[in-house]
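Lecture 7 notes: from sequence to structure.
We start with the chain below.
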Amino acid sequence: MIEENASKTQKAVQEGSDKTAEYTRDIKNDLKNDIRRIEKTVEEVERSNKTQQREIDRTVAEVKTEVRNIQKQADTSINNATKEMNRMAAENTKAIAANNKEVDAKLKALDKKINEDLKKALDNPLANR
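Predicted structure tokens for the same chain:
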């Protein structure tokens, strides 16, 4: 009977051990599957991040190029406007100088005429009476 109990106990221990081994194997396989799924997800995320980074870098490069082009256009426009303003200022300076000469000449002519008229008036013998 002891042998029979020992055999039953040994059989029960063996069955428990087998169930534990099977349960452990199932957990191990589930963990391996979980790890593979996580690794796949991580790889997909890394691949997506690299793709997005390349797109961002390309967009940044395009924006920098566009900004440089706009800056060049602005610089050209400013230079052209500055040249035109300088040309107009020079023309205005010449026109003002010409006007000043004309006004000076007219003032001299008027001064001369006034002096002549004044001299005539003073020299007029009838003016003293």
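Points to note: The chain has one domain: 2-95. The chain has one helix and no strands.
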